[in-house]
Amino acid sequence: MNCKDLGKEVHMRRAIYLAKKAWGETHCNPMVGSVIIDKYNKIVSEGYHKRSGYPHAEILALERSKASKIDPSELTLFVTLEPCSSHGRTGACTNAIINSGIKKVVIGSLDPNPLHSGAGVEILRTAGIQVTCGILELECRDLNFIYNHWILYNRPLCAIKLAMTIDGCMAAYSGNSKWITNSEARQDVMLWRRLFPAIAVTQNTLLSDNPRLTSRIENSSDVRVSCSRRFILNRTLKDLETYSNYAVFNDEFREKTTVVYGEKVDPGRLNIFENMGISGWEISENANGLSIKDYLLRLRDSNINGVYIEPGARLATQLIKDGLVDYLFCYQAPKLMLDNKAASLGFNRMSESMEESFTLFDLRRINFGEDSLIRGFLKNN
Q1: Contact status, residue 88 vs residue 111, Cβ threshold 8 Å
Q2: How is the beta sheet containing 43-48 ordered, strand by strand?
Q3: Treating both helix axes as pointing N-terminal to C-terminal, what angle do 3-19 and 57-65 enclose, rounded to 10 degrees?
Q4: Which residues have a catalytic role annotated?
Q5: Average per-residue pLDDT in the chain?
């Protein structure tokens, strides 16, 4: 890699940093950051897309660059995602770039939509602008893996989070699972909870852990709390009488809590539930319980482009086996349970060859002290 490419990477990393300022705020739009530099490689202006309906990153950076009074032809615009070429609520960014007089554009990743991918680049080049693509492409694409999946497949990305020992145990035989991973790894979970527009757990998790299902980002001065849409999977609407004891039905975000129940629920239980004033979704059932496929379709129809499921061993195994999991977060601690009755991934599944295995791709790995996270897309071999 030459010095010019290294210089481009520095500015693209800054653009990625800016994009992440809108972490979890832009659905169903992508996170995008933009930087404009002068001929001396000094930053002139910056911008990032804050949320859907707000100005795009390039537009903000272009507007702010005007204060420098520098000839636009001497400037270079960096952007993490290919500028849009269609007229939405905020207008086409390609037009704004062309009209600005800028002559150099550096792009991280192309538009994920096959119908538009490369179109913005071609428009800019046709206008005489020098365009460089693929700078930190993997990092820029990873920034919007939820959005990209939504655009490509027109359905929400279904992700599951697992925490396990190195022998695959997710809880002791007693059901106790606090804590498998360390505090640093658990704080990372909070970041992903904040990113996803929805989070889901089973009724069993609600009863055993009383989770808040919020994102609590801690720093040196305070704790930043946010809450995505929360879903409790309770097929038969059991234990409704205890719901007043649980945080998700009593905290300041209670209106974001929805109970998902089955179409065959007892009418008496449904009547009790409806009188409680809690949001509910009725979905179809199958031989394994609630139809998660139907649940995902309901999310799509509600314009929710991703869900972060924190399942137990049984549900996690079923979801993976049924091919419903698009993305996996697997946290692992250097511990051994050595408990053949402990809850573990692969619950009640018997496989006979490696051809029945599942593989992760587009992997990302990170360590949290002695614990680790491996995450990536999932496919059946």
Answers
A1: no
A2: 43-48, 33-37, 76-81, 104-109, 130-133
A3: 110
A4: 58
A5: 90
- Longest Cα–Cα distance of the chain, Å, equals 73
Q: In the block, which residue shows the tokens 């300022």?
A: 21
Sign of the torsion angle spanned by Cα atoms 160, 166, 167, 169: negative
Calpha distance 292→231 (Å, rounded): 12
Q: Express each pLDDT in 6-15 by its tens digit.
A: 678 999 999 9
- Using CA atoms, how far residue 60 sits from 46, 50, 56, 79, 371, in Å, is 7, 10, 7, 12, 40
Half-sphere exposure of 249 (CA within 13 A, CB side): 19
Helix (H, G, I), strand (E, B) or coil at 93: helix
Report d(CA 144, CA 226) in Å as an integer. Answer: 20
Contact between residue 98 and residue 124 where contact means Cβ atoms under 8 Å apart? yes
**Three-state DSSP state, 257:** strand
Cβ proximity of 7 and 41 under 8 Å: yes
- Please give the Cα distance from 237 to 240 (Å, whole number): 6
Phi, psi of 331 (to 5 degrees): -90, 135
Q: What is the pLDDT of residues 129-171, one digit of tens each?
A: 999 999 999 999 999 999 999 999 999 999 999 998 888 888 7
pLDDT of residue 312: 86
Find the length of the chain: 381
Kindly report the pTM of this predicted structure: 0.90
Q: How does strand 43-48 pair with strand 33-37?
A: antiparallel
Nearest to 187 by CA among 166, 217, 219: 217
Return d(Cα 277, Cα 282) in angstroms, integer. Answer: 15
Given a cut of 50, whether residue 381 has pLDDT beyond it is no
Say whether 55 sits in a helix, a strand or coil: coil
CA angle, 332 then 335 then 338, to 5° = 115
